Amino acid sequence: MWVIGGYNGSFLNDVWYSTDGVTWTEATDSAAWVGRDYGTSVVFDGKMWLYGGYSTDYHNDVWYSADGVTWTQATASADWDGRYSHASTVFDDKIWVLGGYSGGARVNDVWYTENYYTLSFDEQGGDNLADINDLVQGATTTLPGAAVREGYTFLNWNTQANGGGTSYAAGATYTMGSSYTILYAIWEQTIEEPGISGGSYSPPTTSSSSGGSGQSQTEVIRTILENLISLYLQLIELIQAEGAN
After folding, report:
1. Are the CB atoms for 111 and 79 separated by under 8 Å?
2. How far apart are alpha carbons 54 and 185 in whole angstroms?
3. What are phi and psi of 228, to 5 degrees?
4. pTM for this one?
5. How confident is the model at residue 169 (pLDDT cuts 50, 70, 90)?
6. How far apart are CA 61 and CA 34, in angstroms?
7. Dihedral of CA 217/223/225/231: which sign?
């Protein structure tokens, strides 16, 4: 059980909790939000949420906390007008705000949150990266830079582990969809030339005898074999000629 803020002659921003209703422990005597009365709270997505209320003004800020001590402001100004004594509930994986008292009058409007989603990263052998949490559909965020994996070069982030989905460059802007999402690191193995530290290995090229364009290693080997076969045939002809004499 939790008690969040209130009024006792002054507007409070302390937070208390109890497991039995008898013994109470103060989580904090001064939360990050301004002291208020008649705000409402719900539990959603594993966090406590506080929004609205009244102190010297009607509030429409929204805060959340996973432990009652550290509070993060989700927004300083929600779409609905500042209010207090509003009803709150969680339904259909959304937070709802219903009615209340705003601007000197009772109101009967109804509002609900967007769903919040998490963007996770599967490094597929690379260094671990933190999730990006609390993204609503359509929100944009910057993807991490190039991941690191020994012996591999990072290519891109991809929606499929085999690289067959949509790819995103390191540091690109990503627009959140309507569900929990995983992006996979796509790698290319780096082959090191024996005896040389670092770098990628490429087969050497050999200049032709005429000094023209370079030949590949395969072409050089083919030329050598052809010359050996020609010499062998010439030697056979020479032996045969001497035998005839």
Report:
1. yes
2. 47
3. -65, -40
4. 0.53
5. very high
6. 10
7. negative
Q: Which residues contact 240 (CB under 8 A, 6 or more apart)?
A: none
State whether residue 237 is helix, strand or coil.
helix
Q: For residue range 88-98, what is the model confidence (pLDDT) as tens digits?
A: 999 988 899 99
Residue 148 to residue 185: CA distance in whole angstroms: 10
Q: What angle do CA 171, 174, 175 make, to 5 degrees?
A: 165
Q: Using CA of residue 105, residue 38, residue 86, residue 76, what is the dihedral sign?
A: positive
Q: Residue 226: helix, strand or coil by DSSP? A: helix
Query: Residue 244 phi/psi, 5° resolution?
Result: -70, -30
Residue-wise pLDDT for 73-87, tens only, equals 988 999 999 999 999
d(CA 127, CA 195): 27
DSSP helix, strand, coil percent of the chain (3-state; round to 5): 10, 40, 45
Quick check: helix, strand or coil at residue 85? coil
| Per-residue pLDDT at 207 | 45
Q: Which residue type sits at 199? A: G
160: tokens are 């499929």
CA distances in angstroms from 194 to 30, 148, 164, 201, 205, listed in the order given: 63, 23, 32, 9, 17
Give the side-chain half-sphere CA count within 13 A for 82. 14
